[in-house]
Amino acid sequence: MPNGAPRAATRILAACCLVSSIAGAQIDTVPPRLGPPPALTPPPMTERTLPNGLRLIVVEQHELPLADFVLVLNAGGEADPPNRSGLATLTAALLTEGTATRTSLQIADQTSYLGVQLGASAAWDYSMVTLHTPTAQLDSALALYADVTLRPTFPAREFARLKTERLTELLQIRDEPTEVADRAFAQTLFGLNHPYGRPLGGSEATTRATTRDDVVGFWRVHYRPNAATLIAVGDLTPDDVARRAERAFGAWTRGELPPPVAPAPPPRGATSVLLVDKPGAPQTSVRVGLVGAPRATADYFPLEVMNTILGGSFTSRLNQNLRETHGFTYGAGSGFGMRRAAGPFIAGAEVTGAKTDSALTEFVRELKAIGDTVPNAELAKAKRYLELQLPGEFETTGDIASRLVPLVVYGLPLDYYGSYDRRVEQVGQGDVQRVARQYLDTGRLLVVIVGDRKAIEPGVRALGLGPVTVKQVVDVLGTGTVP
To answer: Could you give the angle at the alpha carbon of 355 between the alpha carbons of 362 and 440, nearest 5°?
Structure first.
């Protein structure tokens, strides 16, 4: 065959595929139907408790010689002192930066040599230390895992380095309207006297003010076995985990624990608008919402179904309206930030600056309309969407361990996922309408927009949503000086 023949054949084949694809696109105009969700039988779980109070949850998965561990501590960002926001996340980040017997480089070298993944992080309600390891390396991996948890030294050099990195990241936020909008929304909705009104990762001022002693103090108070749960998933047995956990964590001493912080949010008045000026911005970051619900709410499943219809999927009302119908944005959505206390409900998008007022009109329209009766077909589609999502979240040992974390943090039963589909199916039209009207009071919304004031302010004021307050980015993020 001549040299050019293969290339010509390839081009012909590609053209045929393209024509076939176009023809198929023209014919197949009906969206595929969602099939029934695959049956999910959550794996059995075994509980143990060590003498020092450390709770163990073990899930056996013997398909592969792997194991995942998640150590969950019952304190996160909400436990940060008011003038030290970001302390929980900084403490977690420093755990792997040095111990009494290992430097940060030695920790990194050992994780690489063993083929394990080691990490730590903090959320609002908890901190966690994670380990993924081949079971062949279990003894060495658990020794390293316990070392960074129980014997961190928080080296001054590494503390200074991470603090500098964080300050650099915070400076960069000034040029990110989405971050500015999120922070402005939280601090306006909750106020700086409420933990949720302060940034989880800290501000420039609180980061500069944080000392190594602050980190050591947070770790000493909150990293205690009687405030911790060790989740183990993989090629393990409960007896094996209990024996190894006793060896690794048995010397960890109990401590006196401060009560969890779950303050009530401040009362919300009538709808108001905060405009943060970002001169020259071609887009506007839009956030619309109010205080939502705690994770322990009895309305969890109705709220999940309602939000799926409103803004929790690609085919949701908000996305179809603002993206598909009007072309204001590449994507719009909504969600409840459910925490130990009531977190925020936020609907948001990044919209074309010239269409800011029109986009706000559609946001409010959809928030009102969800309180009307939802058609049966739309309700059924939302419930099926939620049911189809769940099995994919149990595919790996790491997935399973992650799905158990909220059960631990919020005191949910270990058989929670076994009844998930049934409880989703129990949600009816009346439930969706009730929670929409109860939790989405469109007369008490907070609207935050970050964009070019000169271009968007006249149209926003003309909507008459409520009083409009104008701030600069520095008013939201601060100057970086110690309070």
So the answer is: 25
